[in-house]
Specification:
Helix content: 55-70%
Radius of gyration: 13 Å
Distance between the termini: 19 Å
Number of strands: 0
Length: 51
C-alpha cells in the first residue's frame, strides 16, 4: 500500500523507471516494510524472507 507519505516518491519512481529503476523499487520496499509493521502490530503471521 502506497500511503500519502510515499505517494510522491512512487510517482517519481514511475516517471523515472526507464532510466532508474531504483527509485520505484526502494519506494515499494519501504511500503512493504510499513505494511509488515502493521501485521506485526496486530500479530498477523506472514512468511518472513531474508531479503
Amino acid at each position: 500500500m502506497i500511503d500519502e507519505e510515499l505517494k510522491l516518491y512512487y510517482y517519481r519512481g514511475l516517471k523515472e523507471w526507464k532510466s532508474e529503476q531504483g527509485f520505484l523499487c526502494d519506494t515499494c520496499l519501504a511500503a512493504q516494510d510499513k505494511f509488515k509493521k502493521h501485521l506485526d502490530d496486530f500479530r498477523i503471521p506472514y512468511m518472513k524472507s531474508d531479503v
